[in-house]
Write a structure and sequence with these properties.
Elements (H helix, E strand, L loop, with lengths): L1 E2 L8 H6 L6 E6 L5 E7 L2 H10 L5 H9 L2 E6 L3 H15 L15 E4 L7 E4 L8 E3 L5 H15 L6 H5 L6 H4 L13 H15 L3 H17 L3 H20 L10 E9 L2 E10 L2 E8 L9 H15 L5 E4 L13 E2 L4 H39 L7 E10 L2 E11 L2 E2 L5 E4 L8 H17 L8 E5 L2 H13 L7 E5 L10 E6 L2 E2 L11 H30 L11 H11 L2 H6 L2 H5 L6 H10 L2
Parallel strand pairs: 8-11, 11-12, 13-17, 17-18
Antiparallel strand pairs: 1-4, 2-3, 2-4, 5-6, 5-7, 8-9, 9-10, 13-14, 14-15, 14-16, 18-19, 19-20
């Protein structure tokens, strides 16, 4: 590492005289040693010199250069190493003048598990070695639509491995012609593998090969007088062609292309990523940086390309709305549009970026209005920046789950959502459930390990809200404003009653806001989201509990033996009714194991 002296006036000429021409990373520092900017370069000397020997910088860069008091550089063996180091430092140091797009949300993929009958599934996060992944896709909707198409056309299974291993008869997906039921042997491994190969080709964008292959299958079946089989394949072809025509993007070939377009509207930067795979436009993703003071479109585009393709594989071609870009990452075949078709793609991406900025500004304006209205209605000193809402869900006391959803500046922040599995209470005691959830949540707030909300919403009436106030008092958080949201007459939306405890204490009378009140709309939206999140968690917990078989607790009974037992006796009830002698007649079940099974199911 090389470092300039931390003097108040940076001598660029002296620093450049000793700078290497190797690839690496440079850091610009302020007088207080705060990192202003981190960048990478193929040639450190040329890149750093361009800041101090050339004019025409953007206002943002010019302002940054006025604050530079020192610089540090780290030489690397290659540009690829410099790119990795740059992204690591940007994420760690969060420099003021870097444009940071990356967040914790990964891109979604379509996955195929690595088993004898691979499962088709939606995936986010780390990859497993045994599975195969296709993507990335710009959003979850594009993945789900593709999965539905593939499932309908190629009839691949989507069930979990635990479900697949324990089926004794075909499920509903087979009945509605969405699966060939490999779980019960209604399709051979060879035939399933043939369908799988076609699905893999389709996911790789080789649509022509897929349709040609299906056409040959249809003709062979027709020539062999297997007319039902030929008709089924014909329907597959029609389904694929209908989707291909609907999603066609004027491409004369099965192109894999990314279109990256950047706009600055009213000082707000947006980069729109459009993905074309196999000639199909599979969607757009608008990206906004966390901070980009006075950034220009070219700067934003360069930052996005460097960060996005550091983690995602680049397609054979990347079309850029702004060009040239300094220090385009190695291995990225990027450039301006080359023909009318590519120019149309760029214009479409630019339009979508502008629309995203407009929608974002409108959403911010709407959120600000709703927060201001809520502040006025509840008598809060400021608009509530962070709102947390709690709800309880259970079925007759079974599998009780509490939800906590978070709204920040009028927008739901799903990364902060939490669920609490409630244990050790009398079934159906919502007051105890709420007390447990609030205690577990706000113990961390009381110790300073978690940020305190500006407002807490409790989905419940006066009693639920009273429990909340007791918990806050016990934890020394009595200053937190809260609202109990009681359902209206006949549970009709819009007739809710609000029990308010503001900064100066509880309101004397319950509050009812008009159905057209902007602040009330925000409360309803947050409350409904808490209700949805609680129900989803409750149903998952209930299904897990009800779907657990006692056979799974018997040592020596794995998926194969469990499947054999369930198939032989027609389900778990049949296994329970079987005698030890009946169990011994199953291949692989010894008398000792039969006794263990018989004892476990009693």
């Amino acid at each position: 590492m090389k470092s300039s002296a931390p003097e108040s006036s940076f001598d660029a000429k002296e620093f450049l005289a000793t700078l290497t021409e190797a690839p690496g990373v440079y850091r610009m520092l302020a007088a207080d040693r705060a990192v202003l900017y981190v960048g990478k370069a193929k040639n450190l000397k040329k890149r750093v010199a361009s800041y101090f020997t050339k004019g025409g910088h953007s206002p943002r860069i010019a302002l940054m250069l006025q604050q530079v008091a020192a610089m540090e550089v780290t030489a690397t063996r290659s540009e690829a190493e410099a790119l990795i180091l740059e992204n690591t430092l940007i994420k760690k140091l969060a420099p003021k003048y870097n444009i940071l797009f990356r967040d914790d949300k990964s891109y979604p993929y379509i996955g195929l598990s690595g088993s004898e009958f691979p499962r088709l599934f939606y995936h986010r996060g780390a990859f497993e070695k045994k599975s195969e992944y296709f993507g990335p896709f710009p959003n979850g909707l594009a993945v789900r639509e593709s999965i539905q198409l593939i499932q309908k056309t190629f009839l691949l299974r989507t069930c979990e491995e635990s479900v697949f291993a324990n089926r004794s008869r075909p499920c509903l997906m087979h009945q509605i012609k969405r699966c060939k039921a490999p779980c019960v042997g209604l399709v051979s491994p060879q035939d399933y593998a043939a369908d799988l190969r076609l699905a893999q080709l389709f996911l790789r964008g080789r649509h022509t090969e897929v349709i040609d292959g299906l056409t040959r299958q249809m003709e062979d079946a027709a020539n062999g007088l297997r007319f039902e089989e030929a008709a089924a394949v014909r329907d597959q072809i029609r389904a694929l062609q209908a989707v291909l025509h609907r999603q066609y993007v004027s491409s004369t070939r099965d192109a894999d292309v990314d279109i990256v377009a950047a706009v600055v509207e009213r000082g707000e930067l947006c980069v729109n990523l459009a993905m074309v795979r196999g000639g199909l436009h599979i969607g757009d993703r608008a990206c906004f940086p966390r901070s980009a003071p006075e950034a220009e479109a070219t700067e934003g585009l360069a930052a996005f390309v460097a960060q996005h393709y550091a983690e995602q594989p680049a397609p054979p071609r990347v079309i850029l709305s702004e060009y040239p870009i300094d220090d385009l990452p190695e291995g990225i075949n990027g450039g301006p549009p080359k023909n009318e078709m590519e120019r149309a793609w760029v214009e479409m991406a630019l339009t979508n970026a502008r629309l995203a900025v407009q929608a974002r500004r409108q959403a911010k304006s709407r959120s600000s209005g709703r927060l201001a209205a809520l502040q006025e209605a509840l008598g809060l000193p400021d608009p509530p920046h962070r709102i947390e809402c709690f709800d309880i869900s259970h079925t007759m006391g079974e599998a009780t789950v509490a939800s906590c959803v978070v709204c920040v500046d009028g927008a739901m922040k799903k990364g902060d959502y939490r669920r609490f599995n409630i244990e050790g209470i009398q079934p159906g005691d919502d007051y105890a459930a709420m007390r447990q959830a609030l205690t577990r949540r706000y113990e961390k707030v009381a110790t300073g390990d978690m940020v305190a909300p500006d407002l807490v919403l409790i989905d419940g009436g006066k009693g639920q809200h009273r429990v909340a106030r007791e918990v806050f008092a016990e934890l020394g958080l009595d200053h937190l404003p809260s609202v109990g949201v009681a359902k209206g007459e006949e549970r009709k939306p819009g007739l809710e009653t609000l029990f308010v405890h503001g900064p100066s204490g509880p309101h004397e009378q319950p509050l009812q806001l008009g159905m057209d009140h902007a602040g009330f709309h925000l409360i309803q939206e947050i409350r409904d989201e808490a209700h949805r999140f609680a129900i989803v968690g409750h149903r998952a917990r209930r299904a897990k509990a009800r779907g657990h078989s006692k056979l799974e607790d018997v040592t020596g009974v794995g998926p194969a033996r469990r499947k054999k037992l369930l198939a032989q006796f027609g389900g778990l009830d049949g296994v329970k009714a079987a005698t030890i002698e009946d169990l011994c007649r199953i291949d692989g079940i010894s008398r000792r194991l039969a006794e263990e099974i018989h004892k476990a199911l009693r």
